[in-house]
Amino acid sequence: MSTRGFWIDHFPGNFLWSNAALACKGMAPYGVVAMDEIDRIAEKLKTRQSEPQAWQEEWCAMAAQVEKVADAAAAQGNDRTAGNYYMRAGNYYYTGERFIPPGEAKVAVGREAYRCFKAGLGRSYANLEFVEVPYLDITLPALFMKAPGVSSRAPTVVIFNGMDNCKEMSVVFAGIEFAKRGMHTLAIDGPGQGETLRFRGIPSRYDYEVPGKAAYDYVAQRADVDPARVVIMGYSFGGYYSGRIAAFEQRYAAGVAMTALHWDLAAWQIRIKEKALAEGNKVAQSNFQFQWVVGAADADAGIEVAKRFTLKDVAQQITMPFLVTHGANDRVVPAENAQKLYDAIGSKRKTLRVFTAEDGGAEHAHVDNRQAGVDFVADWIAANLPT
Fold first, then answer.
1. What is the pLDDT of residues 26-80, one digit of tens each?
2. Are 154 and 226 within 8 A, CB to CB?
3. Topology of the domain covering 126-263+310-387
4. Which residue of 80, 117, 348, 353 is most buried, as measured by CB atoms within 10 A?
5. What are the start-end ranges of the E strands in 245-341?
6. Phi, psi (rounded to 5 degrees) for 332
7. pTM of the full structure
8. CATH number of the domain at 9-124, please?
9. CA torsion, ordered 311, 317, 319, 324, to nearest 10 deg
10. Which part of the chain has CATH 3.40.50.1820?
11. Counting beta carbons within 10 angstroms of the beta carbon of residue 351, is it exposed (0 to 12), middle (13 to 18) or buried (19 or more)?
12. What is the tens place of the pLDDT at every residue in 135-152?
């Protein structure tokens, strides 16, 4: 589809950068990024699009500048202000890390991001817990956001991120909204995600019902969670994870794919490989991203792994209420994939909601208007949970 202007396509002709910038801008409604700061970064980047290091340098320079203000505020005891600045620094570091190839440099910037995230979250949200979820013989890092003022066992949403996201983003753009509606949230970095991939070296897996089971087991044993009203949710690449979990872990009461994944993921990876060689700035992700996430040795090995990431043969096993949302102008995962997933789901209570440009939320994972997407998801969950 055609471009939609500056807000969506910050770098015309460079979808790789525009898409990454939009993911960061999409956090603006929650006060964890500032459009003025992003605009200043982008202005410097406009003339540096041919420089491989430019993206990292400009985003991380702004992150460091913002972090210094956070440090000064913290030293003066102004923790609320410090929390705001630390959150913005964390998001800028995390965005700057995006195109750094796997290795020590990527880990170093990632640690800066997570250090700021932790400092910001701890100061900003009194209803937030940093937890570890038992998984096989290790644990997975997660954030548990409690709904304020809820004394009885409450419904809880378990969120697995997308390929380029992290639990710190999930708990802010979704967890806050769920908390307003009396629902707790467990935002988790599963295998191949966030801290779990970067610092613990655990890649993704196609049988995501294994970490999905671990997440359910964790929340179900908490005294503040109603185990009969736990929802599994994923967004972007996580739309595959939530669908796979819903097909095999029937203890969840409902499921949400806030954006479907490609019906043929291997074909998508082949396209990225081919386009990255010819015109790398026209694709949605760097050529190393997927293979890094799944622990493949190279692009060809990643394509073979991608063949196992499909809901084609298991979607009919989803019998719980299930919601699929998608953006009509999604240029990462075309909307036709959402229809295919919806058609294949076996549940008698299923919903498909495609957001247009007029609705807002028409881009990938609704990053152009996350509020529109999350509001719909939250209201749907409230309407479809058992009473």
1. 999 999 999 999 999 999 999 999 998 999 999 999 999 999 999 999 999 999 9
2. yes
3. Rossmann fold (3.40.50)
4. 117
5. 254-258, 322-327
6. -100, -50
7. 0.95
8. 1.20.1440.110
9. 10
10. 126-263+310-387
11. middle
12. 999 999 999 999 999 989
